[in-house]
Amino acid sequence: MSQGQATELAARGTIVDVGEVTTRYLLYGLLPGWFVPGLADWVMHRRTRIEDTAGTKESLIHSLMMAEVGLPIALTLRYRVNPLLLAVQLGGAAVHEATALWDVRTAVDSDREVKPVEQHIHSFLESLPFAALASLMCLHSDQVKSLLRGGRGDPDAWRLVPRGRPLSAGYLAGIAAAIGTCVLLPYGEELLRCRRAARTKKRHAKDDRARWRAPKGR
Questions:
Q1: pLDDT score, position 19
Q2: Mean pLDDT over residues 13-20, rounded?
Q3: Hey, which residues does 162 pair with through a beta bridge?
Q4: How many angstroms separate the CA atoms of 70 and 177, rounded?
Q5: Phi, psi of 162, rounded to the nearest 5 degrees
Q6: What is the model's pLDDT at position 64?
Q7: What are the residues facing 25 on neighbouring strands?
Q8: Tens of pLDDT along 155-203?
Q9: What's the chain's average pLDDT?
Q10: Helix (H, G, I), strand (E, B) or coil at 89
């Protein structure tokens, strides 16, 4: 927004709270929108038959990546941003990025075709955590400074403090429903599918060994 626009809005009696607008963007834009590329990535895994290539290993890596992102999100929705929470968020983002590299390497080594569309989807899944974290750090620059000072002078710096204005039960229920529908159910189905395929392969291999060892009839 330009200085002229801000002055015009102020003249009309309209107050623009940038912090409030950014918070709404995070809660009602970025976070819900995050589920879309996650669900699209699951579709790509299914289309490339992950159960017959990378199998359970890659599916478990996906579960790990969701936990690395899910824990900081859950804490942020319930607790106030402070040095402890920022440290958790930064650590989660860094570990998630390292795990994402492991994920792609696992897929490539297994001969699962990672198509250009899936690679583009990954770019969203990797960049959105940093976008959310950057916005939070701008909103809570005082806590960033406190983190850089090691939390000195702040007795609440290294403990979880409930939010001063808790999010509504309806919003939290909606996010929980979205997580269940767009994350837990599809990726749980993926892991189950991979485990089932692994058991089938193991059973077939066992049957083949038994046939080879069986004495041939005369």
A1: 86
A2: 72
A3: 79
A4: 14
A5: -55, 150
A6: 96
A7: none
A8: 999 999 999 999 999 999 999 999 999 999 999 999 999 999 999 988 8
A9: 89
A10: helix
pTM: 0.84
Handedness of CA 81, 85, 87, 89 (dihedral sign): negative
Residues 6+ apart with CB under 8 A from 182: 35, 36, 38, 39
Write out the two tokens for 208: 């083949």
**Token pair belonging to 8:** 């015009």
| H-type alpha helices, 79-158 | 83-109, 116-139, 141-148
Cα–Cα distance for residue pair 99/106, rounded to 1 Å: 10
How many helices and strands, by DSSP H and E, does the chain display?
9, 0
* Separation of alpha carbons 48 and 54, rounded Å: 10
SS3 27: helix
Contact 160, 36 (CB under 8 A): no
**CA gap 54, 178 in Å, rounded:** 27
Classify burial at 148, counting beta carbons within 10 Å of its beta carbon; exposed 0-12, middle 13-18, buried 19 or more: exposed
Q: Could you read off the pLDDT of 99-149 as tens digits, one per residue?
A: 999 999 999 899 899 999 999 999 999 999 999 999 999 999 999 999 999
Least Cα distance to 133 among 92, 98, 165 occurs for 92
Q: What is the pLDDT of residue 76?
A: 96
